[in-house]
Design goal:
Layout lengths: L2 H23 L1 E17 L5 E10 L17 E9 L4 H8 L5 E9 L10 E7 L12 E3 L7 E15 L5 E8 L4 E7 L2 H10 L6 E7 L10 E7 L15
Antiparallel strand pairs: 1-2, 1-4, 1-7, 2-3, 4-5, 6-11, 7-8, 7-10, 8-9, 10-11
Length: about 240
């Protein structure tokens, strides 16, 4: 092999390796969550950093409960340390005046903690949830039902939804069943439904969630698949046939 060809081959290999390495150590997941801000402060003498703690709803996957009776799971609060880059001024200022309040945060979880941050959980932006449904969002969006085990409607709201993974990305989240006071993990296999669900999280309102349950999960983490978000009526309703002439 000639020297020039060898150099080109080595350079190409380095570029490809670097690209794959960056992908592997980059973002693990990104999404939105409703959480209570319990701590927020600045640290450092020369370089300021902003750190805090969020209280988020989770669950104990080992809990013994009857899923067929919708008894799973009892909500469990977990504390999540987070960091904010000082250049994200709007996020810093909002969080600084929102202590002990519920906030909606847009976050990113890194595979390896960046040098500029103290934690792998980075808050990108934060805001208050709105209490009135605006005209810019539709009253519902429905997709195909993917599960053959059971399909049902839940009254509640989404607490967390993120896109996670590197080679095979999936949408994973947790919803609150307000009727039963339970939380449950779910996946979203339809990208349009996932984007609409993120939009729905802007509102501190109850809405109907259409859940389709499959016998197997496949690549996703949960056998509960969100197929509809409806602000007006229970999910899964049949459409009326058009009137005959």
């Amino acid at each position: 092999m000639k020297l020039n060809n060898l150099s080109l081959w080595l350079f190409t290999g380095i570029v490809l390796f670097s690209a794959s390495s960056v992908s592997a150590i980059g973002t693990y997941s990104e999404g939105w969550a409703v959480a209570k801000l319990t701590q927020f402060e600045s640290r450092g003498l020369i370089f300021d950093s902003y750190e805090g703690t969020l209280e988020m709803m989770s669950f104990d996957a080992s809990e013994k409960c009857d899923e067929m009776k919708d008894e799973c799971f009892t909500p469990v609060k977990k504390k999540v340390p987070f960091s904010v880059r000082p250049e994200t001024t709007d996020a810093v200022n909002f969080l600084n005046k929102s202590l002990n309040q519920d906030v909606l945060v847009h976050y990113r979880i890194h595979r390896i903690t960046p040098l500029a941050l103290s934690t792998d959980f980075e808050v990108l932006s934060a805001q208050k949830q709105e209490t009135v449904l605006t005209k810019e969002i539709a009253e519902k969006l429905a997709g195909p039902k993917t599960g053959s085990k059971r399909n049902f409607s839940v009254t509640g709201r989404i607490l967390n939804l993120e896109y996670k993974g590197t080679l095979i990305g999936t949408y994973e989240g947790i919803f609150l069943d307000e009727t039963r006071g339970k939380v449950h993990p779910f996946s979203v296999t339809n990208e349009d439904i996932a984007n609409f669900a993120w939009s729905a999280m802007r509102f501190n309102l109850k809405y109907f969630l259409g859940i389709s349950v499959a016998f197997t999960t496949g690549a996703r983490e949960s056998h509960y698949d969100l197929f509809e978000v409806n602000f007006k009526n229970p999910a899964g309703a049949l459409e009326s046939p058009p009137p005959s002439n």
